[in-house]
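Hey, weird one. I pasted the TIGR01777 family oxidoreductase sequence into the form twice and got a warning about non-standard characters only the second time. First submission, copied straight from the form history:
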Amino acid sequence: MKVLITGATGLVGQELVAQCHAKGYGVNFLTTSKKKLVSDPNYQGFYWDPKIGEIDVNCLKNVTVIINLAGASISKRWTASYKKEVLDSRIDTLNTLYTALSEFSDHKVTSLVSASAIGIYPNSLDNYYEEDELGVDDSFLGDVVAAWENKANEFKSFGLKVAKVRIGLVMSAKGGALPEIAKPIKYYAGAAFGSGEQWQSWIHISDLARMFLFIAENDLKGVFNGVSPNPVTNNRLVKEIAKILEKPLFLPNIPKFVMEIVLGEMSYILFASQRVSSKKIEKEGFGFEHQNICNALENIYEKSGMCSIPGDNISNEFAP
């Protein structure tokens, strides 16, 4: 199998490339930086600029699967101009890939596996979301993800199998949300947000990359939730990180209005609650290596013997 990856130099992309190479898969990748172009037998870089629709169509040569991870980070202040960049980066990426497939008439691509996000699900403390949920969150994120998935579905016109992976909170020491959550805890300033009862559907970065490859290898199509079997509340997440780091928590939860002052509209992501199911991908035969938050954190921080809470080794402990 030969894979074309967008966003290959990002957090998830780097893990995905490493797993592809471990399995002997060739990787082509697209980059907007000519300085990052590499030309190795199993790791070939190609230049593109989705903002203007420019792409080297040779990136598709001998490729059977496209894995799309590209998109501007949502972890910046949501000014009007930046919100446009978040949406445009996702739509422009897929439009540019679509054009490349149209121009490279003898390509061998059979499937597209595109990143998506659980932010599409309505904010709720009570609901347990599976992939057939039709509701869309009434927020900027809900709108972005809905547009993102609709654009990915257009690739069905090429006869491709299209899969969307709705990614939750990615757990990694190398970047993303975890180091930002852990930082104040390390300096004795950690605290949960709001009530702390909002659900955080998370996934270990290794499991997420494995899931993308599993979907590609098995020619799956449709929507799959990229989350572990055991979502946790924000209170529990913060406590587990503090336990792994062996730091106390003594500050009260941080009120919503404080974070709205600090972060503006972007603070929404700290308080939104989505309890999301992983049952669909598990029924396809995918097995998680990191099912529980404490075990996942032990792996990430290379510690052991810290998981003592009853139920930490039970799958779906928080599922109805």
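That's the output from the first submission. The warning seems to come from a hidden character in my clipboard, not from the data itself. The domain at 2-170+203-226 is CATH 3.40.50.720 (Rossmann fold).
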